Each structure stands twice: as C-alpha cells, then as structure tokens.
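step 4 of 6: structure.
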Amino acid sequence: MDLFTALQAVLNGILTGALYALVGMGMALIFGVMRIVNFAHGAFMMLGMYAAYVLFTRTGVNPYYGFPLVGLVLFGLGYLLYQGLLRPIHGQSDFMQILLTLGIGLALTDGIQLVFGADYHQINFPLLGKIIHFGDRIRVSAPWVVSFAIAVAACGGLYFVVMHTMMGRAARAIAQNRYAAPLMGIHLHRVQAFWFGLGVATAAVAGCLLLPVFYLYPGVGDQFTLKAFVIVVLGGMESIVGAALAGVLLGVVESLTSLYWGNEWALAVDFVIFLLVLSLRPGGIFGSQRA
Amino acid sequence: MKRMHLIFALAGLAVSLLLPLVVRGDYHLQVLFRIYLFAALGLAWNLVGGYAGQLSLGHAAYFGAGAYGLAVFTQAGLPLGIALVLLVALALVFALLIGGVSFRLRGPYFALATIAFAEVLHATAKNLPNLTGGDVGIQVPALFHNHVQRSFCYCAILLAAAALAATAVISRSRFGYYLMAIREDQDTALSVGVNTARTKLNALLVSAAFTALGGALYGSLFLFIVPDQVLSIDISNEIAIVAMLGGAGTLAGPLVGALVLESASELFKSVFQEAHLLIYGLLLIVVVLFLPEGIVGGVASLLRRQKRRKAPGEAR
C-alpha cells in the first residue's frame, strides 16, 4: 500500500464527505431548531433520489439540473409534514418525537416500495463515464467532482441562510432559548416549519447528488439516517459547521477503513467512533462541551 | 381488585395453553408463535421503554445474542443447558456495555446509542464468517423434534407468562416504583436518593435476559439464521412498536400490542407482499398522534373518564 493509494482514498473520502456534510447539516439544523432527532432523514433523502429518478426517466433532465426543483418539492412536503404531524406533538418528550419520525420514515420507505417495487435502479448519462486525472496516479470520476462542487455550494448557501437572513436569525434565537424567542415576536411554528422543510430539502438535494454515483432502492436511505446520527453527534448535535466538518471526517475515515480493512467494516467503524464519542466527549469533537 | 387481576391472568394462561391444541396447521401455529413470542419481547422491552421511559431501539442486540449464542455455543460442543445459560450471559454483557455508555446521558442519546450498538453487532456478525457464518448464515440446533410448531408455541407462551409475572412483581416492588419515578422526572428521582443509572441498568439487564431467550427460540424454530434477519433494526423496531401500540408502561399492553400488530401484519402480508412493513409506520404515526398511551392505556383512561362522569350523578 503506497502513498498514492492512501492519497487516492483520502480524496475519495473528501468527495463522499461533502455529501455526508450536507446530509448532516440538514439533520443538525432540524435538531438545533426543533430538538427533534429526525429518524426519517434518510427516508427524505431516498424520496429525493426517487424524485430525481422519475424526473430523469420521464423528462431526461439529469439530477445536476433537476436538484433545485426536487429540493423545492421536498421543502413543501417537509413544511406540510411539520404542520400536519410534528406540530401537534410539539413540546412532548423526545421519546414520542423519535417514534413519530421513525414512523414517518418507515411509512415513506414502504410506501415507495409499494409504488416502485423493491428493484434496484441506476441512471446513466454521458458525463458518468468521464474520468479526471490528477498527475499519473490520482484520478476521480467526473460525476463525483460535480456532486462535490454542488454539495459544497449547498453547504455554503445553507451557512449563509443561517447566519445572514431573518429566518436564520430566528432559528438561532429559538435554538438559544425556545421560550424567550416567541416572546420577542418570533412566530415559533412558522419558523420551525420553514426549517424542517429546509432540512428535508437539504437531505433531498443530497439524494439528487448521490443518484448519479450510487444506486437506488427503497431502503437506500436507512444507512444515511444512521450516518447522519453519527455525524451530528460528532459535530456536537446542533452545530452546522461541526456537522459539516464531521461529515468530511466521516467520509475520509470510511474511505481509509475500506482501503485497509475492507468495505464491509466501514459502517461498523462509524458506530464504534460514535459510541466512543458518546462515552468520552458527549458534546461532540467539534462542538461545545455541553450535553 | 388484585384478585381479579390474578383470575384474569390465570384464565388467560389457561386459554393460551389450550389454543395450540385447537389451532390447526403449521401456518396458523407459526402465527400464534409469533404473537406469543412478540408478546414476551414486548413485555421485556416494556420494563425499559415503558416503566423506566428509556427508548431502546436496539433490542435486536439481545435478540441476536440469543439466536447466535445458541448456534455458536452448541456448535462449540457445549450441551444445550449450558448454551442457554451462556447466551443469556452474553446478552447481559451487551446490556452492561450499552447501559454503561448511554445511561449517563440524557435525551435522545440513549436511543441513538442502542441503535449504534446493535448495528456494530450486525456488522460484526456479517464480517466474522469463521465465528458466525457471515452473510451466509449459521445453523441453529432444533430444540424439539416432535410436534415442532406446537412445542415452540408452548415455549413462547411460557416465556410470555414468565415475562408477565416478572413485570407484575416488578411493577409493585420498590424497584418498579423507582423505574416509574425515573420516567416521570429523573432529576426529582435523583434528588430523593434513587440511584438512577443503577436502576435503569438493572431494568435493562432483566429485559435483555428475556429478549435473549426469545431470540434463541426464534432462531431454533427457523433452524438457520442470517445477520439481516435476527440483528436487523427491523427487529428492534418491531419489538418497540408492539409495546407502544398496546400501551407502554402497562401490564397488558404488550400482549394486546402483539396480538394486534402480528395479526395486522399477517393480513397486510397477503395484500401488499413486500411492502407489509407499511403498517408499522402508519401504526406508529397513529399511536403517537392519537393513542399516546397505547390501546390499553387509551381504553383505561376512557373508562376512568366515564366513571368520573357517573360518580357525581350517583352522589346526588
């Protein structure tokens, strides 16, 4: 195993990591604003993938152009789901909220299976075969680079919205003190519905970016729900910057694990890291130290 | 009132013991087995999830420990009795590890840690072909050779009865009141001198032991197990849903939950085939939004309300 193989693995890990960062940021946003651990996060990502798949097979629009539309549709779905299902149990224990989002995730996954069947799907367009070379030894496939670029832009956009818009300021106010914020004239449920929608849209966009380089089946989101847990715990639960860094870190760790121990251990290593962080630094490695 | 409960329980046990003799056909006996097995598993989960209010979504870890324990320990040449003791011990070790890591934390961390631990075991079982057979699976010894389905049914009934008896005793003991105090308000429980971490851990240990025995039964009935079957997150979810649907923190809840969920899922299987898990998701949403106390809790509070409405009228 020489240096270039390791470098190649790190590079692959960073490319995957940007997608993880996007998934994790959506989860961290929802947790930060609503205190809800979104067990349906991967299901929303899966839904985004199917939406992009349908868009591509019906109209020929590939996910790299179609992702804003998919994001918008899933934003609407998230907004409605918040108003219809999550709002009524507002303020209840996290026990109930976890069970509700778990139920939503199961229903979405099996609803999709009912409509599309359990078969695996893949999409194909000319860009997918292209490979970009860096020097003699390092190479990456073009769709990964495009997905990476869009994911980084989306992460940046999300950061901008959180830090520099009224909605972002309202979200940060609620995250700081959810009792004082409504007294300052913040419409709690409208803001939470917006951010739940945006969190769902983020997951869906990540799904769009994953579709060209991955395959599609109804249960594809499950592993990403689990990875999103790992990412937000590493990142300090509510910190979006922490989640982004943790996503990239996770991508690199997984890639190196696959290289040295084999692909099948990657998820196990994720969870061992997760358990270690929970027991040693429950505030996350990038987050503030309070749990 | 207490005597009433006992009479109900004994009548229920008598009916349960007669049912496998009346029910005909392997398919129906197997459905019956699933109902009693998941009643037992739901009761075990209920100690942690219902009485102590700690959401475990990783009970597949103990279930899998039971199924794989039986397979691995008997393949190593150990007699059945010792294998049974060892598989329970294995589940207890897992419970100690999970509880030790996560019971010091609040909020959603326990739920997340239970999932993480079960998934580590899932991946480990997949990746150690020499020990567990890997993805290919491993053979589990048959516990019974004659009247197989019926014998397994009786075992599941006995396990459920034992779990019910244990829950009944615990729910009236000091230990049980500690658990409920933790569920209602952990800080207050701590401030009046309840060792919350220890109490929660004890509940998890009892729960894990019953779950492991259930897993061993399940594995032995199918004679062959793979990681995706006995260590999957679906098993964890199913166990939790059984208890939540029937009524978490109630004695009869998991029994009712198992009866309703397993029958509903059999019906759904014939209509929707692969997508029969849809019913789990929909039921969960309905329970959280409209029946937070489950079927048993919902009916009980309805009866209480009616009694209260009647009472002033009689006083006049």
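step 5 of 6: annotate
 - The longest strand of chain B covers residues 138-139.
 - Residues 27-232 of chain B form one domain.
step 6 of 6: archive
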